[in-house]
Amino acid sequence: MSTDTPIREQSFKNALTQLETIKDKSPFYARKFADINLSDIHSRGDFQNLPLTTKDDLRAAYPLGLSAVSPSDIVRIHSSSGTTGVPVIIPYTAQDVHDWAVMFARCYQMAGITRDDRIHITPGYGLWTAGIGFQLGAELLGAMAIPMGPGNTDKQLQMMIDIGSTVLGATSSYALLLAETIASRGLGERISLRKGVIGSERWGERMRARIAKELGVELHDIYGLTEIYGPGIGINCEAQTAMHCWDDYLYLEIIDPNTGRVVPDGTSGELVLTTLVKQGAPLIRYRTHDLTRIVPGPCPCGSPYTRIETLIGRSDDMVKVKGVNIFPAHIEEALAVTPEASSEYQVMIDHLEGRDTMTVFFETSAPLEHRPYIELALGQAIRDKLSLSVIPKAVNLGDLPRSEKKSKRIFDNRY
Ligand code: ZN
Q1: Cα 229 to middle of ligand 1, angstroms
Q2: CA of 275 relative to ligand 1 center, distance in Å
Q3: Distance between CA atoms of residues 222 and 131, nearest Å
Q4: For the chain, what is the domain count?
Q5: Distance, CA 142 to ligand 1 centroid (Å)?
Q6: 313 CA distance to ligand 1 centroid (A)?
Q7: What span, in angstroms and rounded, lies between the C-alpha atoms of 118 and 167?
Q8: How many angstroms does the Cα of residue 306 sit away from the middle of ligand 1?
Q9: CA 4 to CA 306: how far, in whole Å?
Q10: Distance in angstroms (rounded) separating the CA atoms of residues 404 and 230
Q11: In this structure, is residue 364 part of a structural domain?
């Protein structure tokens, strides 16, 4: 089914090797795979029949039930956001922390960032993995880390100017906020940024183009999730086509989110990751809910690492309206072909008078008298793409909320 590169072949072998000892090391997997004889797993087909590990499994292991090492070997914990109840705690050994730094430093190198760079880090520090991942990689690379954390835009810009930050690490929405502030205050000339390393939130082409233009930087998408180290497990290269993932640390599969079956390379689906050397909390076939596809064939940049396409959404972000599956990416693509529409939007789905309605709020700087035409154009673009009628509503630039964390764009008010 797949044309395997040597690195993926080796990655799969390492995944199999790990199965030999996983039950001895991990009480979590000893229980999960209790009825499976792992020594029977030899082929891809066998492996694909192993049950998937879900976020609910991880929650059920709260607080330290995922640990596969002695408690004294855990040097740090991180936690993924517990917006839906019990958080997930991931324990790290010293080796895990080092491996993460190696991967993140590799990301910086792939983006053309060197030890001469000054890396301005705006993602948050704390239980979640964002800020500290950027920091670990910067320090291992030998660059200067500027650990700002989020918030206080005035102070961010002052430090950026005074220290001469050359790389911005941020979420896409915070990068946009900074870019807009720099533009509105006319500070562009005093900013020395040359690269942006932007967290793996999925974002549209128009937003990307705006941030790149306002900041005057080349942008790189960095991929990762707290359950699997954190940000830094993949990044797009100079060819900008897709994100290389470090498959000497991870084994990648793409599944159909509905059936759970592995799909061929090139087909879109949900990314499933198996850690290969993680000690604190090894994960076998973990469902990321990130929708992407494996990009087949060699990359023009020459890197042998497997590529995944920029995320097209999350399988749990998908909403169904009038029988149509809608992802944030669909709205972004429609905005990108609508003249005078900005990249910022918010979708409200309601159930009114017995039917579902979808209202798409979007920002524009166009004068009031132009707006009905822009709304018509956006409505048409969405109809062309999804065969779905929506209610487009233009609002002023800056009217929709900006966030330092990941922005929620689609609000389903039907239930
Ligand atoms: Zn490449």
Answers
A1: 22
A2: 22
A3: 13
A4: 2
A5: 23
A6: 22
A7: 6
A8: 9
A9: 10
A10: 17
A11: yes
At residue 90, the 3 state secondary structure works out as: strand
Task: Indicate the pairing of strand 294-295 with strand 307-308.
Answer: antiparallel
Burial class of residue 268 (count of CB atoms within 10 Å of its CB; 0-12, 13-18, 19+): middle
Distance (Å) from CA 50 to ligand 1 centroid: 31
- Of 255, 281, 315, the last residue of a domain is 315
- Output Rg (C-alpha) for the chain, integer angstroms: 22
Within a domain: 21 = no
Q: Is residue 58 situated within a structural domain?
A: no
CATH at 130 = 3.40.50.12780
Looking at the DSSP bridge assignments, the partners of residue 167 are 119, 195
361 touches 400 (CB < 8 A): yes
119 and 167 Cβ atoms separated by less than 8 Å: yes
Q: How far is the CA of 247 from the centre of ligand 1 (A)?
A: 14
pLDDT given at position 320: 82
Residue linked to tokens 């972000």: 317
Question: Measured in angstroms, how far is the CA atom of residue 244 from the centroid of ligand 1?
Answer: 6
Lowest-pLDDT range of 96-110, 130-144, 336-350: 336-350
pTM across the whole model: 0.84
**Ligand 1: distance of its center to the CA of 301 in Å?**
4
Residue pLDDT, tens place only, 263-317: 999 998 999 999 999 999 999 999 999 999 999 999 999 999 999 998 878 887 7
CA 286/CA 101 separation, integer angstroms = 21
Exposure string of 244-259, with b = 16+ CB inside 10 Å and e = fewer, is: bbbbbbbbbbbbebee
Residues 304 and 359 in one domain: no
Domain that holds residue 127: 94-315
Measured between alpha carbons, how far is 143 from 378 in angstroms, rounded to an integer? 44
Residues bordering ligand 1, an ion, CB closer than 5 Å:
237, 239, 299, 301, 303
Q: Tokens at residue 47, please?
A: 């492996």
The reply to whether 354 falls in a domain is: yes
Looking at 187-191, 300-304, 403-407, which range is the least confident one?
Answer: 403-407
Q: How far is the CA of 6 from the centre of ligand 1 (A)?
A: 16
The token pair at 336 is: 């990108």
- The SS3 call for residue 54 is coil
Q: Report the alpha-carbon distance of residue 249 to residue 102 in Å, rounded.
A: 10
What's the CA-to-centroid distance between 136 and ligand 1, angstroms? 23
